[in-house]
Structures are given as C-alpha cells and as structure tokens.
Amino acid sequence: MKKFYLILLFNLIVSFMYAAPVYSVITADTTSVDSLNKLAYTNYRDNAEQTLSYAGQALKLAKKLNYKGGIAEAYRLLGIGNSSLGNKEKAVQEYLTALSYFKGSKNPAGEAKVYNNIGNEYQEIDFDKALQFFKQALTIATQLNNKKLVAALNLNMGNVYTRKKQFNTALSVYQVSERLLNEMNDSVNIVQCWRNEGVIYFKTHDFVKAKQLLTLAHDRAKKQDLNAIVAGINLTLTSLYIAESNYKEADKILNEGKSYAQLVQSEKLLDDYLSTSYELEFKRKNYKVALDYLLERYKKDSTENSKSSSMRLTLVQDQFKYQAEQKEVQLRLQKQEYDRYRFIAVTIVAGLLIVVIALLSGNIKRKAETNKRLTELNTEVSYQKDNLDRINQHLEEIIDDRTRDLQNKNVRLSEYSSYLSHQIRGPIATLRGLLNLQKENLLNQRECLAMMDKCVTDIDEKIISISEMLHDNEDQAAI
User: Residue 147 burial (CB < 10 Å; 0-12/13-18/19+)?
Assistant: First the structure.
C-alpha cells in the first residue's frame, strides 16, 4: 500500500512539472486571442473590414486552443463586422453561433451581449422583436450588475421607442443611459446618447434643445474621431437646418457628413444621405438635381427591398436554426449535468469501495494476527497437555508402586499378625494356665513366678523380634 501511494505522489509531481510550462503557453495564447478580439471591437465603427480580419484571426487561434470563450467572442465580433458592412443575414448567423458557444460555456454576460446584437439587427424591421431581445439582455445585465451593458441596452431600446414614435418613453430610457454613462465616464457612448436625445427633440420640433445637443455631440465626436457617429449626427443636423430653411448651413453639414459616411464605408449612411440630399435640393427648388437623387435612391431602394425580403426570410430561417441550436445546447447541457452527477456518483461509489477494501484489508490483517496468536496458544496448550500427560503417567506409576507396596505390606502384616498370634499365644496360654494353677494352689509360688518370668521374657523377645523384622522391611521398601 505504501508503494502505491509513493508511485501516485511521484506521478502527480511529474505531471505538475510538465503541466506548468504547458499552462503558461496556453495562457499566453489565450491572451493573444483576447487581444485580437479587443482590436476587432475597437475598429468596428471606423473600419469594419479590419474588424472581420482581427476577429477571423482570433477565431482561428481560439479553435486551435479549444478556447470556448475566445471562440464565442470572435463569432460575435464577426457578426458586428458583417452588420457594419450591411451583411445582416451573415451577421445573424454569426451571432447565433456565438450564442450557442456562450450558452455552452455558461457565460451569461456573453449571452446578454449577443441578445443585444441580435436586437440591433431587428431594430428597423421588427420593433417588437428587437425589444424582446433587448429586454432579455437587460434582465441578464441587471442581474450581473453590468452597468456598461445596461447603459448600452437603454440606448438601443430608446432607438426602438423613437422609431415607434414613443418619444417620452425613448427620452426616459436615454436619460437612464446617460446617467450610467456619466458614472462610468464613458465619453464615447455619452456622445451617442446626446445625439439620440437631440433626434427626439428634433422630431418633437424643439429645435433649440435639438441643435444644442446635436452640436455638442458633433464637436465631441470629431475630437474623439468617431467618424460613423459624426456622419449620423450630420444627417439630423442637416434635416434640422432644412427645417429652419438654413440651406447654406445644411449644405455644409451635409457634405461634411457625406465624406464621413464614405470614410467609414457605410452603405446605409450613404443611402440616407441620398434621401437627405433629395430633401435639400427639393426645398431649394432644384428639382432636376432633386430628381436625380430620387432616381438614384429608387434604384437602391429596389435593390435593397429585394435584399430586405431575402434577409427577412433568412432571419426566419436563422430563427428556426437558433431555436434548434438552443435545444441542442440544452440537451448538451443536460447531458453534461447527467455526466457530472454520474461522475459524482461513481466517485462516491469508488470512495466507498476504497473504504470497504481498506476495512476488509484491516480485518484480514487482524484475523491473520488473531489466527497466529491462536496457533501459538494452541501450541502452548498442546505443550502443557503433553506435560500434564507425562505428569499424570508418572503419578499413575507412583500410585501403582505405592499400591503394590501397600499390598505387599498388607500381606506381610497379615503374615506377621498370624506369626505374632501364633508365637505370643503360646506364652500367654502358659501364663493363663500358671495363673489358674496358682489360684488352685497347685504350684509352688516360687516355681510359679519363675515360670511366669520365663513366659514374660519369651513374650518380650518375640515382640522385639517382630518389631525388628518390621523395621527391616520398611527400610528395604524405602531403598
């Protein structure tokens, strides 16, 4: 058992020694993925092609490392890049793929970002659908206390409410966003917020507040090189100056904005500038120029309309695909959960088996020691029994010897008794006869005494002789 633990410890040390450098390399590579994704996000407003390039590099490296978080973010940024270039259907496909990876890696912050991105794609074609995705993202962002994302979602929801002409609701959510952006000192999105508020005031014909906010946003955006935002602000400012019949200022702002739209290569902005140019020339009564702008926009609208129809169909297909992927992700998560519980159960069973084996091993050792001790005790008992048997046999021999000796003595005593009775009986009978004769006065007294003395002397000699014989026999028996 000790050898097993030593081998296990050695393997762990070796694994750690080899794993540490590998972990360092992987960490460095994942940092590269994160850096590429960050560069992709930084460029999406001004150079969408660069965004696609950086995101593509990040995706390739992340897949090589099987870095799920990097893969998910790269797909999301590919969606943002395609959206900036007007490839809406491609963008949605990338977003849905990103969402499946974020769900698979249990990254709710990533899920919320993707819901926000998908909502942006629906802003112009399905307001309710857009709000549904924004609110779904807002719920997650609020739970995570992600102020940056909450502010961005309020901005986007305000845009939808503006398109739905719910201006008061739009203004209230913009103000929530502005408060959060000021807390975070997010100068970029504050500019966007001012622009959106300015649009609402313009649509509600409060030109003073609209011009104040739009001019402030315009100047701050130019200082920060936010070219796409500048182009968007100039559209609204142009419309405002047209409404005020300030055509000179409108023309100046329009041309500046058009150059920014061309700089960021935004087809949508360029289309909007065509419509605004038509509006300006129509107000100036330059009908021929206005008609040229209208025809150009009509051609683009026809093309865009077919593209929009195609995109809507694609979005529906992607929605079904997204739901299918959600089910697949859910099944995968359930399988992972089942595998996790099964692993825990197997681990517990293995642990119990190890404990049982350890207990059995200890029990076997104790039984072996007990058997060994019992064997030793049995050997000792057998030895003691043999000793007792030898002692008993010796005692039996002694008893047999003593019994035979007693029997011999009894025989001799019986013989001595017979001998004594025979030897002593004669002198005693003589004494009794002498006594009877003396009583009858038939013997002389002196002669009678002499004969009695002789009888007593004979008796005494016989007794001494018997006693000596008895002592001789005992001495012989002792020997």
Answer: middle
